[in-house]
Amino acid sequence: MLRTIAQKNPSVPSLAVDGVFGSRTTESVRAFQRAYALAPDGIVGQITWDKLNEIAAPSPSPASDYPGYLLRSGSQGEDVRTLQSRLKAIAAEYPQVPDLAVDGYYGNGTTNTVRSFQRANGLAVDGITGKLTWDKVKEVYDSLSGGDGYPGYLIRYGMRGDEVRQIQSWLKRIRPYYPGIPDLVVDGVFGSGTYAAVTAFQTLSSLSADGIVGQQTWSALSNASKSVDIPSPIQPPYPGYTLSQGSSGIFVTQLQYWLNTVRAIYPTIPRITVDGQFGSATRSAVIAFQRNTGLTADGIVGALTWNELYRQYIRALSNQGSDVAVFTTDAEFEEEVTEEVISCPECAVPEERLSGADLDLFKRLMGTLSKHYPFLSGPDSVDFLTDHDRKTLITFQQFFGLIPDGQFNEKTKNKMLQVYKSLGYV
What is the pTM (predicted TM-score) of this model? Predict the structure, then answer.
């Protein structure tokens, strides 16, 4: 069995099948026990024996995890949550399958989504999840994820193979949105660079930062990778720190604006005031969003919640029937938002005046972007750049990671144009 497992898991050394339990076999047993979170004593007791049989068994078919009973209206528990999570991923790709909340309860929303899925896949349309429906959901879900399921064992420093390469690819893809994750090479070898990147991701995602990829870290990486696969608009960078009750500033303002917008998809999210203050109402709205999207409902906005909220914001805009058109705020959100301008003594603004085509371009771009980013105020209606305009420009630079010098230079101009065009304007 160890020889068979070694072909699947490179961290378990291969050995000769000679019927002798010597030092090589002891070493291989210990490596196996470490890989599968067992006590690494090199002794094959009942627990180790059972795990050996489980891992050495032929791989089950992709649709072999049916719980063994019908799921229907009124069912609840982890099996329902698993079904809902898979259907939610499918709904994001197939418009004929409506979105649903991931709450572990098989209510009307889940029943309707199951019916739509059954209809789209030529199954009996009864809204009940039996083995045929469960297996089809799993099949479609696996096809969306490229078959990148958790391999069933811990992946750690020193290992190599396709699973390590997958982890590295995910880390590479999400790195621009997770400040603090170091760059790494996608080579299939779990070395010090991969270890550092995994540990950084775990810290940012409030997971145990041990540098080992188990089921929880694998799933978090997979979900994070999916959440940043957004073609447009430009993904606003994650602040680099969690937002929670007591936080304030432009990132909280943007968070609140997104939450109010995604109410169009998830009406159970309470409407909140966009004031840049993370109070109890904002926390309640965050928890409601997290429950609806299958995230940990702790009311804290880390990188996973930030990226998923933005993804749902874009989805809500698209559902309004335009090519990501300007979102018109309700009157209650047109109140002036206090601007957060950082102190930057070395960024002294020269006396030169912006004029001509550049001035016109700035006024046009900022006028449009302020409709999407509530912490940005519209430009003053005068033919020169006012102090108010410069403060707004500094806020834009701060939010998008530019040097906050209040200058409409080439870098700032190009970033504003990039964001403007990504919103569907030309």
Answer: 0.39
